[in-house]
Specification:
Order of helices and strands: HHHH
Strand content: under 5%
Helix content: over 70%
Oligomer: single chain
Number of helices: 4
Length: about 110
């Protein structure tokens, strides 16, 4: 994974998590419906960012992104929500990153 791709994936994860959290805040935490406007904008940004990834197939780019998303979501859990990931969270995230690496760099028949 190149540095620009990693940065795109990290930015996409932040946008997706932030956008989804805006909906969570509105529906689960009783925040104002005004939270939806930045949430929708963040989710649109997320979708656009994934189109910037240099990949032959969208599905493979999205699948590899999944590992980055999971690690980022656990970072959000810790930094924003104040709940420290436990060893099972970390082990699961490492498995997901391994899976993302296989998707990105596995040998392909051409």
């Amino acid at each position: 994974m190149t540095a620009p791709t990693l940065l795109i994936y990290l930015a996409a994860a932040l946008a997706e998590i932030g956008g989804c959290f805006a909906f969570w805040a509105w529906l689960k935490l009783g925040r104002s419906a005004l939270w939806l406007a930045p949430g929708i904008a963040a989710l649109c940004l997320f979708a656009w960012l994934l189109t910037l990834v240099d990949a032959d197939h969208a599905g493979r780019a999205f699948a590899a992104y999944g590992g980055i998303y999971i690690v980022s979501a656990l970072g959000w859990l810790w930094l924003v929500e104040g709940a420290r990931p436990d060893r099972w969270d970390v082990a699961g995230a490492m498995l997901c990153l391994l899976g993302a690496a296989l998707i990105l760099w596995g040998p392909r028949a051409r």
